[in-house]
C-alpha cells in the first residue's frame, strides 16, 4: 500500500457511517451508532395510560424516566414476542433519552455514502419519511433509519407529554 492508497482509504473511512444493525423479524435496520448510549436487556416497563400502542411505557434509568418505544409496533409489524434476545437500545436524540425495543442487535457496520441507495417510492401505501436509504452489505440489505427524524416526529412528542404526565411536571 502506498501513501495515496492510504490517504484514499482514510478519506473513505472518514466519510463512511457506522451503523448499529438491529433486527425486527427477518428485516435488518441500521441506525447511527453515535446516537446509541447503551444496549440493555428488555425489562418490564411502567405503562402510561392513553399512550399509543407503540409506546410500551417508561423505565427508570439511573434516576431518569425514559420512554420505551416498541419498533415492531411502530413499523406496523406483528406484535413482538419478547425473549432473551429482545433488547432495548437507549438513544440520545435531540437532548432527550429514548429507548427502543428491538428483536436483537447483530453488529456494527461501516457504510460509505455510495453503499446507501435511496429508498424506493411506494406512494402513499408506505411511509418512507424515516428511511434514509437501503444499504447493501454483500448479500444483506440494511434499511438505514433516520432515527432522529423518526423520534422527533409529531407523534413522538406524545412520548414527552406522557412522560411529563407521569412525572406530574
TrEMBL record:
Protein name: Chemotaxis protein CheW
Gene3D superfamilies: CheA-289, Domain 4 (2.40.50.180), SH3 Domains (2.30.30.40)
Cellular compartments per GO CC: cytosol
Domain CheW-like stretches: 16-156
PROSITE patterns in alphabetical order: CHEW
Main subcellular location of this protein, as a coarse class: cytoplasm
Database matches in SUPFAM superfamilies: CheW-like
Keywords: Chemotaxis, Cytoplasm
PANTHER family found in the cross-reference section: CHEMOTAXIS PROTEIN CHEW, CHEMOTAXIS SENSOR HISTIDINE KINASE-RELATED
Highest taxon in the source lineage: Bacteria
InterPro entries: CheW, CheW-like_dom_sf, CheW-lke_dom
Subcellular locations according to the entry: Cytoplasm
GO terms (BP aspect): chemotaxis; signal transduction
Amino acid at each position: 500500500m502506498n501513501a495515496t492508497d492510504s490517504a484514499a482509504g482514510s478519506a473513505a473511512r472518514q466519510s463512511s457511517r457506522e451503523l448499529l444493525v438491529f433486527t425486527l423479524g427477518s428485516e435488518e435496520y441500521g441506525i447511527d451508532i453515535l446516537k446509541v448510549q447503551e444496549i440493555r436487556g428488555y425489562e418490564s416497563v411502567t405503562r402510561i395510560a392513553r399512550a399509543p400502542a407503540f409506546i410500551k411505557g417508561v423505565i427508570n434509568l439511573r434516576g431518569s424516566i425514559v420512554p420505551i418505544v416498541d419498533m415492531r409496533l411502530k413499523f406496523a409489524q406483528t406484535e413482538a414476542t419478547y425473549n432473551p434476545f429482545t433488547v432495548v437500545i437507549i438513544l440520545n436524540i435531540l437532548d432527550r433519552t429514548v429507548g427502543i425495543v428491538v428483536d436483537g442487535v447483530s453488529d456494527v457496520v461501516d457504510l460509505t455514502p455510495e453503499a446507501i441507495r435511496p429508498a424506493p417510492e411506494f406512494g402513499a401505501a408506505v411511509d418512507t419519511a424515516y428511511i434514509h436509504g437501503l444499504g447493501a452489505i454483500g448479500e444483506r440489505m440494511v434499511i438505514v433509519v433516520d432515527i432522529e427524524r423518526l423520534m422527533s416526529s409529531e407523534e413522538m412528542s406524545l412520548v414527552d407529554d406522557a412522560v411529563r404526565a407521569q412525572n406530574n411536571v
